[in-house]
Amino acid sequence: MMSNFSHDSRSTSGELDSAALRSDSHTYPPAVELFSQGAYPANVYLVQTGIVKFTRSEANGQEILLDLRFAGSLVGSAAAISEKPHPFAAVTVTHCTLSRWSARSFVSLLDNDTGLAARVREILSDDILDHVARISQLTCLPARQRLEYLLRQFCEQLGSEDLYRQPDRTSRLQLPLKQWEVAQFLAITPAYLCRLLAELESEEIIVRRNGWIIVGALGSLRQRD
Known about the structure:
By secondary structure, the chain is of the alpha+beta class. Helix content is 40%, strand content 23%.
């Protein structure tokens, strides 16, 4: 089983909470571009709630969904610190509550707040470890297992706190991504994704009803250790 280095709002440290008080907080609807690929950093965002996706386009016109960011993630911090253009675009997937600093203010906070600087180092290190784990998953793990991980993560991030205390509780969600985006994120075809979802349904792990995916028990979906 692969390690999971992801951070979330349930474990966000006091340093980030304190820094968030010195930021602007806004709620964004889905499909808002926070910054574009190749743009120089103007703002840094702390995801309080919701999901943000990273996408990248190549010269041949092909676009890929690189990664997802959940509650507790910093978006745009690496480019702000390095003062280099963003290598990808960041777009809200769901309604998101984000704390926002200007890139200059964020870097100044890091220079003057050692506790915050230490926490940001941890988050950026976690991001690197998560990237490595994701590459390993795509290379080594069956698509079915990758799908179960993703569904479980969606349930945990978009569900209530009770899911952590009651993993056998039924949960339901609507996929926050289009089906072809989920397939691309898992590095499989949309047709194969449909087969995997049908397989989970035939095993009564999930039920699909009126656009919803109902998970009988969160514990029935595999998770990353």
